[in-house]
């Protein structure tokens, strides 16, 4: 077991827990978690009372409507096949494009609504760790709506990740094998006896469970034959194993031979000790810092094996560990774009941002929900920050704290050419006046610039910043004080504080 944290439990540590095991918090949320004590705070995050269906999905994503849409599309494809008999390739393509144009438009709109739905859930949830783990699994078992093309399947996968948030890594991997979105993304449905597709076999070993160096090319070739015959029923939306399309002959995987199917291969994977180490290291790097000590990985891997790969015991051990609250950990992780946006909204106590802001901000910062760049997921850490994205973070912060008119046209929409999606309204932030500055900076504090700055530092950083930075904030506040320190000056001071390298870390 990892060495545990000391009995002391500070406000900064409570804020750190909410930053890493969630998406940040406002002062009242930090205060409430701190009041629980360290152990109860961790247990409350691992045992949320918020039901899984607390946020209803869009009407088009209901099971009944999704099935009806799927059947309609299947019928449309059949009609096209009839109509195109005897037509030239050019005429066939023209008819196909015309028929599916409206469908593609609906899919793009539904994808945007899905992204907004999940973002709002992450912002408002009372189960932040569950949503953070849902994001972790989305990045780990990455698939994109660009290839899947059916947003409802991405929402179904999202629900799968949420329901397995703290559950068995092994069980979730088995479920991912049968997940329609993943099947379409990695072409499992086209893998048949005599023509195996190696995509899933390769990724399940390299990216999902073992990592490079812990399997051979022969293992992939043999496993690919085991993963044949899995099909998606377009009328029911369910995955089944078509035994007629399955290669029933013996396969040798990891030195063991049998007439394996896909589930058998996954069971073989989890017999290897590398699977526990692989996940222990990845969880550590997601929640703590990169390049964990081998001893820590081995201890967490042992916890994972003892729990039959359930994540809850591992997460509890991690969040109660001494190293999780160490100087090397706190405020040393670069916020991913989604974390940056949600934490900022929470700290500004904005529960209803401009409707198109979440999507536009994701687009501009390079992390669009349901659209990871490839099967390896997003690059994290330093990859989130470059000259352009850092400036964009500063501009988005200015828009939120100062409002649309004062901040300029940072939210001016364009046709979103990146990744083939359409943007929101042309002026995504039209009418946004900014947050309630009375909550962020009560007027009683504005008479004393040092007290005002310290209050804002506590709100945005939950702990001290370098003296040089604090002094510059106070000097700015003194220069802006005048007769009355208005909301305008308050917003400008907040923007200065948020436009620092320190705010990019959590």
Report what the structure shows.
- The protein is mainly alpha-helical.
- The chain folds into four domains: 11-45, no CATH class; 59-269, no CATH class; 337-420, no CATH class; 437-504, no CATH class.
- Helix content is 56%, strand content 2%.
- It contains 25 helices and four strands.
- The protein has helices at 11-20, 27-36, 38-46, 63-83, 89-124, 128-140, 145-148, 151-163, 169-177, 180-185, 199-209, 217-226, 262-269, 273-287, 294-306, 311-319, 337-347, 357-365, 387-402, 404-407, 437-440, 443-446, 449-461, 467-480, 487-498; strands at 230-232, 239-241, 251-253, 256-258.
- Strands 1-2 form a two-stranded antiparallel sheet. Strands 3-4 form a two-stranded antiparallel sheet.
- Helix 5 runs parallel beside helix 8 (151-163), helix 15 crosses helix 16 and helix 23 (449-461) packs across helix 24.
- The protein is globular, with a radius of gyration of 25 Å.
């Amino acid at each position: 077991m990892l060495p545990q944290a000391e009995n002391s439990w500070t406000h900064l540590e409570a804020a750190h827990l909410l930053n890493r095991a969630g998406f940040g918090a406002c002062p009242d949320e930090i205060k409430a978690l701190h009041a629980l004590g360290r152990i109860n705070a961790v247990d409350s995050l691992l045992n949320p009372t918020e039901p899984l269906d607390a946020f209803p999905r869009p009407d088009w994503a209901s099971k009944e409507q999704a099935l009806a849409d799927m059947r309609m599309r299947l019928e449309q494809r059949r009609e096209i096949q009839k109509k195109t008999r005897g037509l030239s390739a050019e005429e066939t393509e023209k008819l196909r494009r015309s028929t599916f144009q409206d469908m593609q438009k609906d899919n793009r709109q539904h994808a945007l609504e899905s992204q907004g739905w999940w973002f709002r859930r992450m912002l408002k949830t009372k189960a932040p760790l569950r949503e953070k783990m849902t994001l972790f699994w989305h990045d780990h078992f990455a698939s994109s709506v660009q290839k899947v093309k059916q947003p409802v399947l991405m929402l179904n996968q999202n629900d799968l990740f949420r329901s397995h948030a703290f559950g068995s890594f092994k069980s979730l991997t088995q479920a991912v094998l049968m997940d329609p979105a993943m099947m379409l993304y990695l072409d499992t449905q086209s893998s048949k006896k005599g023509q195996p597709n190696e995509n899933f076999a390769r990724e399940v070993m390299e990216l999902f469970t073992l990592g490079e160096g812990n399997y051979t090319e022969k293992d992939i070739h043999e496993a690919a034959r085991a993963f044949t015959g899995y099909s998606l029923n377009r009328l029911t939306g369910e995955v089944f194993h078509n035994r007629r399309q399955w290669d029933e002959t013996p396969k040798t995987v990891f030195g063991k031979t049998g007439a394996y199917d896909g589930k058998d291969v996954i069971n073989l994977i989890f017999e290897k000790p590398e699977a526990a180490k692989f996940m222990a290291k990845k969880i550590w790097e997601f929640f703590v810092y990169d390049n964990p000590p081998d001893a820590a990985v081995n201890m967490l891997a042992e916890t994972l094996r003892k729990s039959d790969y359930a994540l809850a015991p591992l997460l509890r051990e991690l969040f109660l560990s001494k190293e999780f609250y160490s100087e090397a950990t706190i405020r040393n992780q670069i916020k991913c774009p989604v974390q940056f946006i949600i934490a900022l909204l929470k700290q500004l106590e904005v529960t209803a941002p401009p409707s198109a802001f979440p999507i536009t901000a994701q687009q501009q910062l390079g992390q669009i929900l349901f659209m990871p760049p490839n099967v390896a997921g997003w690059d994290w850490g330093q990859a989130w920050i470059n000259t352009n994205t850092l400036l964009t973070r500063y501009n988005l912060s200015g828009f939120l704290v100062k409002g649309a008119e004062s901040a300029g046209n940072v939210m001016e929409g364009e046709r979103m050419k990146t990744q083939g999606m359409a943007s929101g309204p042309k002026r995504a932030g039209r009418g946004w006046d900014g947050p309630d500055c009375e909550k962020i900076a009560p007027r009683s504090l504005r008479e004393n610039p040092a007290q005002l700055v310290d209050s804002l530092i506590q709100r945005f950083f939950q702990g001290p910043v370098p003296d040089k930075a604090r002094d510059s904030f106070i000097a700015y506040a003194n220069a802006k004080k005048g007769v009355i320190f208005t909301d305008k000056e308050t917003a400008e001071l907040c923007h200065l504080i948020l436009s620092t390298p320190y705010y990019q870390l959590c």
